[in-house]
Design brief:
Elements: H1 10-33, E1 35-40, E2 45-50, E3 55-60, H2 72-99
Antiparallel strand pairs: 1-2, 2-3
Helix pairs in contact: 1-2
């Protein structure tokens, strides 16, 4: 399990684990405070999402809706879904950037931390 059968220094591992826990908490807090904007239809629909994935706002420009078009509601719905996809893709990338370095785990420990991006 460990390189060349060596046992790690448990105090050192504990300190490293505590540092990683603190870094993880900081990264999670930064994500919660971050907002990204997803757009579609050339900016006709905008969705603001927090770094944790909570939808904060939705703006649909009047130009996105043509009252004379029988498929107008369907078109707007498609634009909203596309904007949400754009925003969630941005959140996913942001999360990977923020959490990625923490996914490697402790030095000398195989596999990293389960459940983090990159696992």
């Amino acid at each position: 399990m460990f390189p060349q059968g060596e046992m790690p220094d448990m105090n050192s591992l504990l300190q490293q684990a505590q540092q990683m826990t603190q870094q993880l908490g900081q990264a999670q807090q930064e994500l919660a405070e971050t907002e990204v904007t997803g757009t579609s239809g050339g900016g006709l629909v905008k969705v603001v999402v927090s770094g944790t994935g909570d939808v904060k706002s939705l703006v649909i420009e009047p130009e996105a809706y043509d009252a004379d078009d029988p498929d107008a509601l369907s078109t707007v719905a498609d634009l909203v879904v596309a904007a949400l996809h754009d925003a969630t893709d941005k959140v996913r990338k942001l999360t990977q950037e923020a959490m990625g370095p923490l996914a490697g785990g402790l030095p000398g420990m195989p596999g990293g931390l389960p459940g983090l991006p990159g696992q």
